[in-house]
Amino acid sequence: MTDAKHTSPRRRRSWAEPYKIKVVEPLKMTTRAEREQAIAAAGYNTFLLRSEDVYIDLLTDSGTAAMSDYQWAGMMLGDEAYAGSKNFYNLEANIQKYYGYRYIVPTHQGRGAENILSQILIKPGDYIPGNMYFTTTRLHQELAGGTFVDVIIDEAHDAQSLHPFKGNIDLQKLTDLIERVGAERIPYISVAGTVNMAGGQPISMANLREVHQLAQTHGIRIILDATRAVENAYFIQQREEDYRNQAIATILHEFCSYTDGCTMSGKKDALVNIGGWLALNDYNLYEEARNLIVIYEGLHTYGGMAGRDMEAMARGIEESVKDDHIRARIGQVEYLGQKLLDWGIPIVVPIGGHAIYLDAKRFLPQIPQEQFPAQRLAAELYVEAGIRAMERGIVSAGRSKETGDNYYPDLELVRLTIPRRVYTQAHMDLTAEAVEEVYYNRDRLRGLKMIYEPKYLRFFQARFELL
């Protein structure tokens, strides 16, 4: 007689992070009264809070990742020579290997790359089409004399649309722009791998391939914002049939091959606290960028980074493309999002790659957009549980450079951004419970009035008061 094999009735096992905790940072616990005082002193702007007064910091995933022992070991191998650091060549080799671009210019972070790119490519009167704006990208384009034109599909502006690739470019919108202004007035097409302002939504490989074909027909470059291109590769793997059995590294390499260069904030996918790069395939453009980098960032073999930071980023790139890593990274975001959906809380769907986006228009329908409902919701979430989130709505959208009027985006969102390898599932549970509590008491909330507005990128430093 043989033992029968028993199969568990459980269809799906719980998953766990593919790492263990080696170092911990104690968190400060505050009272509600202390938090009410802190947010008022910060002008109801979560960017102006002191980090020591924050319990769970979901402001951004930029530079907030926990580095691995492999990366920390690399930090001890920093070659801090002013010129020709060996760490630069390690970084260059890994960018070429995993992203596939020929020429690399290091920068202190992503916006350094955006600045250099805008100066070498954009002339006054140019138009830059893209799959939804990003704050710093659009500002650099405008400061160079260009005008950003949104050519993303309409579904991207609908928080409730279930389109699997809401980051896709509308080919008809792009064609119409080319016919209207002429290809010679379009220095490049700006493509983001996962669209931040749409809720971390991906662009499909099929769509990018079609955009590439259209761009080649008209002789227009494509520049990728590769900040979260690894996360985009994961969605391609999960949602496009042809890529189901391909490794993330393979998908990423093909994805980048349909573009002519990229700007990169290594503070996201590459798992470091500082650093970025500009990558190009055109040698003449690379020469221009390499000249400008000396003026704005540093020598072309360090670009505003220490050798140890370049080594950490080189190693972070290796870790970022591992399938187990990216599955767990996005799995944690999905875990939080599914809890909120199960409880009937309005968020952007499908769940994105790096954050959960609360839909402030549906969350706080009593607050009109000109009274900054997303800003108010972010402030209230901090008061409720010490959780710091970020507004992504009318404040972030800013003003028209022509008229000075506020932009009124369709999406009025609060971003709960999950740092990589930092928080546990228990932190996600607490976050979900805090959001639910605020939602339960939402009717008592009123709007805000802006009392200080800086000239550029106002969401970083604006101040508000309660109405």
UniProtKB/TrEMBL annotation:
The modification N6-(pyridoxal phosphate)lysine is found at residue 268. The gene is tpl. PANTHER family: BETA-ELIMINATING LYASE-LIKE PROTEIN-RELATED (PTHR32325), TRYPTOPHANASE (PTHR32325:SF4). HAMAP family: Tyr_phenol_lyase. Its cofactor is pyridoxal 5'-phosphate. Homotetramer. Belongs to the beta-eliminating lyase family. This is Tyrosine phenol-lyase. Keywords: Lyase, Pyridoxal phosphate. One of its GO terms (molecular function) is tyrosine phenol-lyase activity.
